Amino acid sequence: MPIFSTENLRTVALVGHGGSGKTTLAEGILAKAGMIITCGSVERGTTVCDSDPLEKAVQHSLRAACTHFEADNANGQEVRVHMIDTPGYPDFVGQALGALDAVKTAAIVVDATAGIQLMTRRMMDWAKERNLNRMIIVNKIDAEHLDLPRLVEELREAFGQEVMPINLPANNGARVIDCFSKDE
Questions:
Q1: Which of 4, 57, 119, 179 is the least crowded, having the fewest Cβ atoms under 10 Å away?
Q2: In this structure, is residue 160 part of a structural domain?
Q3: Rounded to an integer, what distance in angstroms lies between the CA atom of residue 62 and that of residue 50?
Q4: Which residues contact 92 (CB under 8 A, 6 or more apart)?
C-alpha cells in the first residue's frame, strides 16, 4: 500500500439533494480510477457505497460511506482522494453535516433535470460557513429537453458570479469539453 504525504491527500464529500445521483457518481469515479471493475447500480443494489440491506431496499443512502482512490494531480504527482458519499434527503442531514466536518472540499451534486433543490442550497450554505472549498457538479446532463445554459445562470443567481464552468457539455450532452483548453 502506498504511503501519501499530507500534501498529497485530498478529502471530498459528495453532498446534495436526494436523488441527485451522488452514489452513482461515486461508482463512476471509482470505476474510472480502477478501484472497481464496473459501476454498480442503486436500482440493483450493487453499489459500493449503499451496502446496507435497508439502503438496497429503499434505493437511497441512509449513511455516509467512505471510499478512496488514487489519481494524478496537475503536477503529475499521485494523490489519494478520500471521498464520502452522503445521503441527500433532509431526514438524514446529520450524516452529510458530519461528512462536511471531515473534508476540505464539498462537491455539491445538482440534478440537471430538477435544478436547485432544498438540500442543494443548504449544503452550499453549510459548506460556505465551514470555509470549505466548494464545487458544483451538474449531473444527469444527458437527459432530454434540458436548458443547461439556463441552469448555469440559475446557479450563478443563487450562489454568485464565482460559479464558473470548468467543463461544459457539447453535442447535446454526448461529450464534455474542457473550458480551459478552449475547445470549440
A1: 57
A2: yes
A3: 8
A4: 61, 62, 63
Mean predicted lDDT score pLDDT of the chain: 90
Give domain status of residue 92, yes or no.
yes
> CA-CA-CA-CA torsion for 80, 175, 16, 23, nearest 10 degrees?
-60
CA 55, 59, 65, 70 torsion-angle sign: positive
State pLDDT tens for residues 17-53: 999 999 999 999 999 999 999 999 999 999 999 989 8
Which three cell numbers, joined as nine digits, stand for 60?
437511497
Domain count, the chain: 1
Domain that holds residue 139: 7-181
User: pLDDT band at 73, cuts 50/70/90?
Assistant: confident
In a domain, 1, yes or no: no
**pTM score, whole prediction:** 0.90
The CATH number for 11's domain is 3.40.50.300
* Alpha helices, H only, 33-147: 53-58, 93-100, 118-129
- The band of 172, judged by pLDDT with boundaries at 50, 70 and 90, is low
C-alpha cell at 154: 440559475
**22 is written with which cell numbers?**
451522488
